[in-house]
Amino acid sequence: MASSAAAMTLYRLVFFVPESHLAACKTAVFAAGAGRYPDSNYTECCWTTDGTGQFRPGAAANPHLGAVGQLEHVREVRVETPCLGKEVARKAVEALKTSQKAFDLYQSGDKVWRKEDLADIERQLEDASAVSAFTLRRIDGTTLKVKNPMFGVENPIWEPIVRYREYWALVDCRPKEPAETYNCSYVIEWRNASERLYRGPHQGSEALFHSWRDKWNTSATCAALRGCITNLAVSSLLPPAKFEGMINPIKILCFGLGDLNFKGPNWWYIQNRQRPIDEQETDISVIENPLVHHAIALTIRETVQDVMTSNQAIIQRQPDTRLLTQDPQYTPETISLLARAAPEFEVVGSRGASGFAELDHGCIVFAPFVNAPLNQIIADLARPLAIITPAFGKDIIFDQRGRPCGNPESPRSREMWKEYDVQDFPLVEAEKDVVKGNLWQLKIYTRR
């Protein structure tokens, strides 16, 4: 009896693509299921032929390559690949169109993220049970309605947050989401709060907050960081200012500082119990990094405020330095803790979006372990005075849950870094194992 695969119709997809787009387009169609033969153990099969294409854009054209009225010659590749069954063929064609469209929009200068979109989706998700459908905006300007499964549910345990789909997810492969979400740079993800409610908060986390802040404030690394931030603030704010006419750095924007009541997953407790007794850690150890990150954010704010206070002309225009923090992992207990122990913090973007809408050219960004394409978002929205974040394009950075942080580079963010000088975070070597926070991974990027 013939297998079901052998019984399917074998289609052949043929398309022409510029050499620069070849890898992205092949990845897209293979992810859709193309490149397979019936009863074969081989995948990603195709035939490619180099050649030269030509075209002359008409008067009404808006060419990505070439100019209106001029004959253009482009090195192109002819690609042939098998598609087993009509459904695979349809998905491959759709994936090809999707990745190409996203690439063309990006190349023409379209923004992947817009402040108004990020602020809008945050507002929609804040009261999710009262909204029957959410509106997402694609990068081509069209909108999409997504049904809300929690509409009208009392005390829902499922909470919506924003999940970002960065540049490479848009252009390199077919998205895993439904076809209608293609070209959406963000989608909605649902998280279950029942485990967090069951485990409850840490006992004594507020006392820990104060003790770690005191420990950080008395460290040599803290003093060194104050020196770096003072130099940055002085050169940017005090006459003669480094950037004439710029917006004062009235905001410190923090992303991914970490939840102060996070408890490790079950596997962490199992592995911890398997260690020798003298090597076992307390469950408090998983929040040591977030404790240090929040102390660092307060130091940055205090240092900028000190510089501003020293100059009466500046302090009259802006008497206070705002300190905003966004982390969708914050629990209600952590938000209450910050309100009591460090009211300087303004918690924004509980769904992971509106904090990015606060970006401007005069802010300082501190993002130790953000699980979002921060560099790409900044490249679209602003050029902050300084960005303190893990080194770009180097080692994979893991968040407090042991997951890789989603902050990859893109062509636009790579160009952005050319406008910045970089230096190591001023971690005193003798304190590397004392102050925690994985500070050795951080760099300070300062706008020239």
Description:
The chain has helices at about 5, 20-30, 85-105, 115-125, 165-170, 195-200, 205-215, 220-235, 265-275, 290-310, 310-315, 330-340, 375-380, 410-415, and strands at about 10-20, 45-55, 70-85, 135, 145, 160-165, 185-190, 250-255, 320-325, 345, 365, 385-390, 420-425, 440-445. It is an alpha/beta fold and about 450 residues long. The chain is built from 14 helices and 14 strands. It is globular and about 70 Å long. It is about 35% helix and about 20% strand. The chain folds into three domains: about 5-50 and about 70-105, 2-Layer Sandwich (Alpha-Beta Plaits), CATH 3.30.70.120; about 115-190, no CATH class; about 200-445. α2 (about 20-30) packs antiparallel against α3 (about 85-105), α7 (about 205-215) packs across α10 and α8 (about 220-235) packs across α10 (about 290-310). α13 (about 375-380) links the parallel β11 and β12.
Characterize this entry briefly.
This protein has helices spanning 4-7, 22-31, 86-107, 115-126, 167-171, 194-199, 205-217, 220-237, 266-274, 288-309, 312-317, 332-341, 374-381, 411-416; strands spanning 10-18, 47-55, 72-84, 133-137, 143-147, 158-164, 186-192, 251-255, 322-326, 345-347, 364-366, 386-390, 420-424, 442-447. By secondary structure, it is α/β, with parallel strands linked by helices.
List the helices and strands and how they pair.
Blueprint: H1 4-7, E1 10-18, H2 22-31, E2 47-55, E3 72-84, H3 86-107, H4 115-126, E4 133-137, E5 143-147, E6 158-164, H5 167-171, E7 186-192, H6 194-199, H7 205-217, H8 220-237, E8 251-255, H9 266-274, H10 288-309, H11 312-317, E9 322-326, H12 332-341, E10 345-347, E11 364-366, H13 374-381, E12 386-390, H14 411-416, E13 420-424, E14 442-447
Parallel strand pairs: 8-9, 8-11, 9-10, 11-12
Antiparallel strand pairs: 1-3, 2-3, 4-5, 6-7, 12-14, 13-14
Helix pairs in contact: 2-3, 7-10, 8-10
